[in-house]
Specification:
The chain has 9 helices and 2 strands, in the order ββααααααααα. By secondary structure, the chain is mainly alpha-helical. It has a single domain, classed as Alpha Horseshoe (Serine Threonine Protein Phosphatase 5, Tetratricopeptide repeat), CATH 1.25.40.10. This is Tetratricopeptide TPR_2 repeat protein.
Length: 184
């Protein structure tokens, strides 16, 4: 059975908790093992080795190789290796097969980790404009970046939009609970 790639669910990618989305690889291939590590938020030496094995395996399709780069990038974000993660996302995108906004949520996550908040907002805005399937994640990341820039009203609005787009998601509710609204 040939594995295939599709966009997958939300994953919290680091302690400051911006959102990233891994790329799903099904089957029993080394690329699928790397995907399972990303889903389980395993980012130890073994997980990285498994992803590297998948990238060296000549049987892994081009699409699954690109997905593995994305998943390995997410593991690198967990390891606070944000520049390396951005490199993996760039390489994956250069392999083709992704719409322009497909990796924007992941890039934003890495950029937040690097303190490059304005660039992170540009990435989230790309995903939002394209109504990417992870639009709620983009709004969450946008809120995190705006809050770091001390743009609290805009951050609050972004968290509200994330909550609106994904009702029942605890993360934006948690972020919103930290805000106190008062009149002047």
């Amino acid at each position: 059975m040939r594995p295939f790639v599709s966009l997958a669910a939300l994953m919290v990618c680091m302690s400051t908790s911006p959102a990233a989305a891994q790329l799903q690889v099904l089957g029993q291939s080394p690329a699928a093992t790397c995907y399972r590590h990303a889903m389980a938020e395993r980012h130890d030496v073994r997980a990285m080795q498994d992803c590297d094995i998948a990238l060296r395996d000549s049987r892994v399709s081009r699409r699954d190789r690109a997905a593995t780069l994305v998943n390995r990038g997410i593991l690198k974000i967990h390891q606070n290796r944000h520049v390396d993660a951005l490199d993996d996302f760039e390489t994956a995108e250069s392999m083709g097969g992704f719409p322009p906004s497909a990796l924007a949520v992941n890039r934003a996550c890495a950029l937040i980790g690097l303190g490059r908040y304005h660039e992170a907002i540009e990435q989230t805005d790309l995903a939002i404009r394209d109504h990417d399937t992870r639009e709620a994640d983009a709004w969450l990341n946008r809120g995190i970046a705006l809050e770091a820039l001390d743009e609290l009203a805009a951050a609050y609005d972004s968290y509200r939009q994330a909550r609106h787009l994904r009702p029942g998601w605890d993360r934006p509710v948690s972020e919103l609970s930290r805000f106190r609204i008062s009149s002047r």
